[in-house]
## 1
Amino acid sequence: MDLAGPRDTSLLLDAEDVPPVHEDNTAGRSPFLLTSDHYGRAIPRRLGDLGVPESELTRHIAWDIGIAGVAGALSKHLDAHLIAQRYSRLVIDCNRPPAAASSIPRISDATVIPGNEDLARDAAEARRQAIFDPYHRRIAEVIDRRLRDNVPTVLVSLHSFTPVYAGIARPWHIGTLYQRDTRLPPLLLKLLRAEPGLVVGDNEPYAVSDETDYTIPVHGEKRGLMNTGIEIRQDLITDPAGQEQWADRLACIFNEIETTLRAQR
Ligand SMILES: [Zn+2]
């Protein structure tokens, strides 16, 4: 098996591979533009299983468990456009700058990814051209179109996190992630904290940075859009009932935020 991938970058994905970009509700009228960088865990057929056992490919290292169900339901409830990425973050992480070492990780949460070791520069470039670029090009196009049409746009980047990391249990049910936006995250934090029984992370379990993130810095901050990341703990959204419950809760909160923002304008 040729783990290093093809020289001709157009050959990384063939007719039997799924397209990298998934979209729901492209004509959605909500100001919220939803993105999901770690929505899927597909691997291009030419890359086989990256040398990783199947049991590892269903873990959080391969994708954001549960977020696809939440993102789909939230898109429907809010009438919001969702742009999502179907390939595993182990192939190329669509929320990392391509120059970062973690863009194509050789080790993820102590699991070695043999198919990512000693990767030739053109093989890495092929993954970028086949998966990373089309996804981010599509987000940029949609934002361009919305700005041109004067459609209010607030970027919400949806993620999920593992309940235990490096042996330490994480107490938060949900966290907001942000860097430079001072408008949306405080509103979201206030409403989440008003929900009974929720432990809410303020830039926990992660904070956004230019070095460790791509979608929010590039599509949110550089474009001057209001933005936030959301991280939901995976054990809460493992099944469809949990996904629906969290989508309902977030839809109520985002509707309230929309009302507040419109009143402020
Ligand atoms: Zn994620």
## 2
Amino acid sequence: MLHWILNPGLAFNELLLGQRIPKVTLIQKRSRVPSAEKTFIPCPHCNTLHSGSKWTPQNNTAFKNWFGLYCDNCGKTIPCVRNVTSLILLMLTFPVWYWFKDRWKEKWLEVQKEKFSRPMVFTQPDFKWWYAGLQYAVVMFVGMSLVNFLLLNEEFTWKRLAGNAITWLIGGLLFGLIMKKLSGNNSTRQRNKNTQSLT
Ligand SMILES: [Zn+2]
């Protein structure tokens, strides 16, 4: 969560892709099922416990969540964490988007209603560790390069940039491998039926 708030590279994910993470995530402790299946996202408006697998690429709900995560039980939005860089960008561009945000939100809510009326898939896609690692590497590379050269005023050289790229490529692949190990994805399919009944 701290990473989401501080890394400037994630402003891209948040503002352009509409990728969001909720302020509150509940994780069942001491349960041996893979992490994706013991993760729940509560709606503060209607107290529904949503499956953590509800906002995923295969449901077409992982992105475009600019106004928050849509609760298909009460139609309101679940509050999300805000990245500092995107907060600053939003404040600076306030006079531009302020005028059409209400109409945009109305339209967005209609789209969500339609999206969430379709049957949801709660199975986890096969975890591609190298893909997750590369995604992480790109985000960290962009974010840390911005921090190094713009915030910390380090002298820009192509060599340093290339150094950053290599560091984060290795870091990203390691991250992917660790995530694979932690998620224990091999045994998910059997238990998917259990999560189906969750709303
Ligand atoms: Zn709700």
